[in-house]
Amino acid sequence: MELINTTEVQVPREAKYDRKAELQAFDETKTGVKGLVDTGITKVPRMFVQPSRIEDSTIHSNKKFSFPIIDLDGIKENSIKRKNIVQEVGQASETWGFFQVINHGIPSHLLEEMKDGVLSFFEQDTEEKKQWYTRDLTKVFTFNSNFDLFGAPVTNWRDTFTATTAPIPPKPEELPSVCRDVLLEYTNQVMKLGDTLFEILAEAIGLEPNHLKDMGCAEGLMALGHYYPACPQPELTLGTSKHADNDFLTVLLQDNVGGLQVLHQNHWVDVPPTPGALVVNIGDILQASSLITNDKFKSVDHRVLANKVGPRVSLACFFMTNFVATQRLYGPIKELISEQNPPNYRETTIKEFTTHFNNKGLDGTSTLLHFRL
Asked: 38, 45, 34: which is closest to 118 by C-alpha?
């Protein structure tokens, strides 16, 4: 029998994966995920691959659950309708942390123009768009891919711009001309809607209508335009990882592609794109699992699936004041605290809360755990 000298067999070793180098190279292109797609890739790069297969944890539960849609028609004119709306919003905020609103007062043509504005920014000339690419969070307008690119465990399949429009209105030159006018007009309308929503939420927890507004909840607004390109292997990655929002309240405009899911009763439930509707969700800083209402309202985990159909665009308006220099402390509202309902969270500033969120990134854990008593 002839023995094979195995010492002579050269087994090639797999090259060590350098994630940091891949992230750095991706960031330096300043073209985001869209830039990758434009090169014609047919496989998702390793930096985007989720540790577990997406479909294994997805349960489509639309038949089991009916996602709340609330009609705001008559909210200002009809006291009976207003009482009913307050009850509906209160119940949705306690049980879902999410709801859709229709007849919200923002014209449908403006909704369409805003979606077109997001699309126009991301699909403009690459060299023009690159001028706005930055990771400097102090800028009024930023464009990049994944704010937590170098800190998160996995990269999301999306590009984003952010625009801070309140409380200090931006100068025209601080916003890109391709979407400037519609962004200012739309966010101005969302601020008005926010006033109404904060009144309803205050009434729903038994406070005076202006209570939350007087606390500064409606002062600041940051608009986040998301662009999710078509993905060649959507089962391997996510458009946005599981997270809860680090704000008081979010008002989301989404197109008809779909992909947004809310974690409800341990089921991932699709948020159905509804013509003319806006999606509203409670943020971490406002309500429960949250600081101010001491866990009465729910700030709920949600995510966005990647999709072979694309691009998907959305514009999320975050009511938040982390860009205002203030030492105001936020914690459970004193009127809601009692021996039977002791505080669950320590007081914190918005800056401290946001800094912790940004440093942590979208790692699947709750920012609130850091502030729990």
From this structure: 34
